[in-house]
Amino acid sequence: MSSYVIATSGALATASADLAGVGRTIGAAYAAAAPSTMSVAAAAQDEVSAAIAKLFATYAQEQQTLSAQAEAFHAGFVNALNNAGASYAAAEAANTSPLQSALDAVNGPVQALTGRPLIGDGANATTPGANGGDGGILWGNGGNGAAGAPGSGQNGGSGGSAGFFGQGGNGGAGASATAAGVAGGSGGAGGRNGLLGGGPAGFGGAGGNGGSSAVPGLVGGAGGSGGAGGTSESLFGGAGGAGGAGGDGGYSATGATGAPGAPGSSFAGGAGGAGGAGGSAIGFLSAGGQGGHGGSGGNGGAGGTGGVGDFSINNGTGGAGGAGGLGGLAGAGGAGGSAGIFGTPGGSGTGGTTGTSGAGGAGGNGAAGTALHPDGGNGGAGGSGSSGGEGGTGGNAVGNGHGGNGGNGGAALAPAGIGGDGGDGGSGAGNGGGGNGGSGGAAISQGGNGGKGGAAPGNGNGGTGGAGAAVSTAGTGAVTPGTGGDGGASNGGVGGAGGAGGSVLIQNGASSVAATGGTGGNGGSGAFGGVGGAGGQVITAGSGNTTGGHGGDGGTASNGLGGVGGAGGSVQFQNGASAAVVTGGTGGNGGHGSSGGVGGAGGVVVTNGVGSTLGGHGGNGGTGGSGIGGVGGAGGSVQYQNASSTAPVTGGAGGTGGDGASGGAGGAGGVVVTNGTGITGGGNGGDGGTGSGGVGGIGGAGGGVAIQNGSSSATVTGGNGGMGGNGASGGGGGVGGQVLTNGTGAVNAGVGGNGGAGTTGVGGTGGAGGGVAIQSASSSVAVTGGVGGTGGNGASGGAGGTGGQVLTNGTGNSTGGHGGDGGTGTTGVGGAGGSGGGVAIQSSSSPATGTGGDGGHGGNGGSGGVGGNGGAVQTNGTGNSAGGHGGGGGTGSNGVGGAGGAGGGVAIQGTASGTGTGGDGGSGGSGSSGGAGGAGGAVITNGTGTVNGGHGGAGGAGSLGVGGIGGAGGGVTIQTTSSAAIGTGGDGGMGGNGSSGGAGGAGGGVVTNGFGNADGGHGGAGGTGSVGVGGTGGDGGDVTIQTITSSAVGTGGGGGTGGNGASGGLGGTGGQVVTNGFGAADGGRGGDGGTGSTGIGGGGGAGGLAAITSAFSAANATGGNGGDGGTGGAGGTGGVGGAATTNGMGMALHGAPGGHG
């Protein structure tokens, strides 16, 4: 036989290339298998499992060594085959191809000069730990690095770099270490990729895995670091190689840090390599390695996961996840490593950052707690970028641990980017608290939302919600701030507070977008409710409608105090040309609980615009189960700065008080201070809550108003007070809002709120009416103080509210507010009527009439309520003045009628000629015995006008007993010596009828320094006695003339007639007169006695004394005649005449006695 052997250079080259490809494939497979075979995780947390895992890992390392030797043999065989083919090729080239000779001629000098051929693959390393050869400069793959020698802890060799065309070699695996205390070897770095990668999307070499340290039973060294992934320099999207995994640490050792992924340095946006995983810590006193950072690139690589702790007894820590790399899209941060039995969880990685072209990476999630270290790890922060990355979630706790905090969201750098949401807090365990939510990432247009607070299942507190992110822009686009995160719930502790809503800042005056502050997060539920987050504020230079953020609601409490509602967001509006609507944020509602939470205050508004404006409404108080209802939040105030604005302005309404065993108070209405000229109103006060077993809530005060613009003619109204809540005893009504104005427009003070009804106790007191202060001297509008609220009904009635006062520098008529009526008492006393409001006119040139407010009527009841007093008047002006009338007393169904209120007095301080009249007293209420009438108002004057004291009120009728006493007439005092006006005292009120009549009231006296005539007031007639004595008549009023030069005539008031009865009542005594002047003095006539139907008639009253003290007087002094006796079974005796004396030249004429009946 014979055989023929044919050898061609092409066939040999093809065979050599195929074999080389097979070698690379097998080498890559071994490199890929190294992390999972050389670092086998134990099946359980015991020594046997660890030893088994270590045994398999050792086999894998030995297999890696054998594979490296086999790879070296294979490489030698391929090299021999290549050499054979090259020999054939050379022989053929000498005959057939001058080009091959030329290539050899080039390769030789290039190799001699650079150590690398121009074309050709780099040799794979065969010696343990040796580096792979570099590929040809123009064309060639890098050789693979060799693994370290097993058991030595030797580092793996680096992979060789590729040429212009080619793929970098893989790094060799780090060797394990078997000797005590020796660290495992680091994996070799992957080789760099070629610029064109040999094809589409070439890859840099993978980094070698780090070697494990020390077999069980020895004190081991640190696990080796994973090798860095190879850099991809591909022009067209090649990816960097993955970093190698860090090796497992030996006993009492620390796992190594995974190497960072290599950058993908690509003109076409290659992806960065993923960071290597941190090494696991197997031994005692050990810590897992940190995960490698992701490589940068077109898209950043993800950070590596932190290593896992194992049996550490010295707080072994899982490794922190690596940060994502820079890139078009940033990589996510790695998750924190789990803790070992005795370790703590590793920290989480931060999300990668980018510029404005890519989104930031999400933060890594926090690791869960363990039995000995129960707290959860914190979530990583999101990376910044065109849009921010989300914050990582906090790790959940175990045992009694606290949940980890959520990571903050990343900032958005691009104008249209969205800030990252904050991560949610981790849940607590046992009695541990929940983790706090992360804050949202800041942005130009749309901020990130705050993360939710973590829950606490035991007695720990719920986590606080993260704050919503602020937005700040100099542009004109839409803006959306972040919402605050809700607070975490707690089973037995305090619910977490809600996060604040994000604020808004618009710096561009050309912006016309509507802007609203972020909503605050709700407070978490718990044994005590969490506080609601505040609404976000808005500051804007733009022209769009603007609203402050709503406050979050307070959390519900299972057995304690409900959470306080968050305050509404404030607004600062800076654009002076804009007519946008501006509104403060609404306060959050208080949480429900055994006692209700307080409602949040409404947002404050400060504006320079020209649009309508409203303060934020206060939140409602929470319901209280067995305790007090929550107080309503105050309405937001408004400060209006633009003097050219005619838009309406209103303060925010106060929130309603919460219901409860006792009701919560209503919130006060918002105050308004304005420089504008538009219609303006204070906010209304909130109503008080209902008290199921206790007192109803007090109504909130109405908001006041201050007008600073003197040219304003707009109507101004104070806010009304809130209604008092109903209850076992009623709550008081809120005070009406006051008004202070420099303008000239109509003014309406706020009305006081009505008192709440009391089912078994006292009704609530009515709120006082709002006062008015007019500062402008040019104002001529009529002004009235606010009306007081009506007292609430109850077993005993509540008192009525006081009427509002008026103080004015203007010229318009002014009237005090009327007092509120007292409430009805079903079994007890009726409520007292409120006093009328007073008036003060300060301008000496004002012709305005000043009138005091009338007092409120007393409420009906078992006994009648007292009537309110009339309002007083004080004036420096020239107009007439009148005191307010006293309110009538209430009817007593089975007791005494209420007394009437006194009439209001008058004080004229100027020298003008306006008249002054005291207010009449109120009538006494009827009852089993009648109530007394109120006294008439007194007058004191420095002026020259006629003055009259107020009349006394009539006594009330007594159905079973004595009629009420009549009220005394009001006195008069004239202080100026230049007055020629007549001064007259007020008449006394009539006594009330009854089984016995009530006495009449005394007439009012006069004291004068003027020269006008003076007349005392007449006494009131006695009341009729149906079965008993008639009432005594009231005495006439006295007169005193003090000026020695006065020629005025003084006349005493006549006594009142005695009342008729079974026996007649006595007549009243006539008033006496004493004068120091030249005029006549006439004593008052005594009142006639009353008729006795079966008994004696009443005696007549004595005449009044007349006395002239001046020696120069020629006038007569005449005593008053006595009153006639009344007829009856026996006639009454006539009264004696009044005596007369004089020191002057005139006669002294005694009064005649009265006739007998």
| Uncertain residue segments | 1-6, 196-208, 210-224, 229-243, 245-257, 261-275, 277-304, 306-323, 325-332, 335-343
Helix proportion: under 10%
**What oligomeric state best describes the polypeptide chains here?**
single chain
Structural class: little secondary structure
Instruction: Label the overall shape.
Output: elongated
Number of strands: 43
Structure explained in plain terms:
It contains three helices and 43 strands. The chain is largely without helices or strands and 1157 residues long. Among the domains are: 1-153 and 208-214; 312-430, no CATH class; 500-656, no CATH class; 1033-1157, no CATH class. The strands form three sheets. The protein has a 21-stranded parallel beta sheet, with no helix packed on it. 76% of the residues are buried. The N terminus is likely disordered.
Can you give keywords for this protein?
single chain, 1157 residues, little secondary structure, 20-stranded parallel β-sheet, disordered N terminus
Concise overview:
Helices cover 8% and strands 9% of the residues.
Question: How is the secondary structure organized here?
Answer:
Layout: H1 9-38, H2 47-96, H3 98-114, E1 297-299, E2 327-329, E3 471-473, E4 504-506, E5 515-516, E6 538-540, E7 546-547, E8 571-573, E9 582-583, E10 605-607, E11 613-614, E12 638-640, E13 649-650, E14 672-674, E15 680-681, E16 705-707, E17 716-717, E18 739-741, E19 747-748, E20 772-774, E21 783-784, E22 806-808, E23 814-815, E24 839-841, E25 850-851, E26 873-875, E27 881-882, E28 906-908, E29 916-917, E30 939-941, E31 947-948, E32 972-974, E33 983-984, E34 1006-1008, E35 1014-1015, E36 1039-1041, E37 1050-1051, E38 1073-1075, E39 1081-1082, E40 1106-1108, E41 1117-1118, E42 1140-1142, E43 1148-1149
Parallel strand pairs: 1-2, 3-4, 4-6, 5-7, 6-8, 7-9, 8-10, 9-11, 10-12, 11-13, 12-14, 13-15, 14-16, 15-17, 16-18, 17-19, 18-20, 19-21, 20-22, 21-23, 22-24, 23-25, 24-26, 25-27, 26-28, 27-29, 28-30, 29-31, 30-32, 31-33, 32-34, 33-35, 34-36, 35-37, 36-38, 37-39, 38-40, 39-41, 40-42, 41-43
